Amino acid sequence: MTPFALHRCALQVADELVLRPDVLAVALTGSLARGDPDRGSDVDLWVIGARDDREHFRRRGVPVTLLWQRPHTALSAETRLLYEVADAWVLFDPRGILARVRAEAWARRSQTRRRIRAGTTGFIRLLVREALRVAPTAPGLAVAHLREAGRRVAALHVYDTRGWRVPKWRHFQRGLPPRALRALAALQALPRGDRALASVLATLVETWPAAGPSTAARTWPPPVPHPADFRRMLRVGRTEDALMVLRASLSALPVGAAHVPAWRLWRAAQGFPSPAVAPARVRAAARGLLTLVGALGAEPRLKSGHVLADVRTLSR
Fold it and tell me: pLDDT tens-digit profile of 210-259?
């Protein structure tokens, strides 16, 4: 899908929204607003109205996401932390609500940056601590935590240097030094070559609908991308993003007797062919994380909370 087609779709949906009495303001967000869409991008619209909700649908094959927020929610500190308010393109704002939101975000930009850095660093600390806790009994889960910690370390670097808050693989390719990008790819255990990666993902995506228990279970499917979205990522060449999203989606599932097929799929997505993962893989993942941290010069940021000490313990 070309950027022109995406913009046309966004404007068509926005034109319909502004005619509704419950819509107070509309803005374009995401990659279209930042100016870096690719063939796999979707349309993200921020709608100020009478509810807090998220709505997903397709318009002529284009995935569209509407983030609904009430005015006081849009003005909250949480919105400034979670969303790229400054990059939004305001399309409809007769009452000046979004203008106030953007002015507030600009006035508090330094505070917001500090909180994002502190929150990301704290989450990395939790991931490493949990990896250390579960390594003796669930080494596969420990490796998954270390991989996610590495992705967060790389994302924090990209945020600090480029301002991209939720980077995709193409942002890592553009925003990371070559040595750090190689370390991240190795830590994520991405199969070598696009064909190999696409083959792994195609198998996983086809198995995805069968991973849940009963269709009557209210907890299934979880709030994760639909298989069609994974297929679209594969079709447009966003294979690395698809694998990382699939892993994160499956990691959010509750693991129990009813989710045995999902548990098997999770192991396959992580690259673990059997339930037992050798402790050597935990050590390798910890060393990979240390290599990534060193390549980014992130040691000073991670010294607090014994993060590096815990990773070194796992690497031995």
Answer: 544 433 333 333 445 566 666 777 776 777 777 777 776 666 555 444 45
CB of 185 within 8 A of CB of 172?
Answer: no
**DSSP per position, 103-156:** HHHHHTHHHHHHHHHHHHHHHHHHHHHHHHHHTTT-HHHHHHHHHHHHHHHHHH
Contacts of 302 by beta carbon, 8 Å cutoff, 6+ apart? 121, 124, 125, 153, 293, 308
Rg of the chain taking only CA atoms, in angstroms: 21
Report whether the peptide linkage leading into residue 213 is cis, meaning its omega lies within 30 degrees of zero.
no
CA–CA gap between residue 291 and residue 226 (Å, rounded):
34
Domains of the chain: 3-107 (3.30.460.10), 112-315 (no CATH)
Model pLDDT, residue 91: 93
The dihedral of CA 152, 75, 21, 53: what is its sign?
positive
Instruction: Tell me how far apart the alpha carbons of residues 281 and 63 are, in angstroms, rounded to a whole number.
Output: 37
pTM of the model: 0.78
Other C-beta atoms closer than 10 Å to the C-beta of 39 total 13
* DSSP code per residue over 274-290: SS---HHHHHHHHHHHH
What's the order of all strands across the beta sheet hosting 53-59?
A: 53-59, 62-69, 43-49, 23-29, 89-92
Amino acid, res. 294: G
Cα-to-chain-centroid distance, residue 26: 24
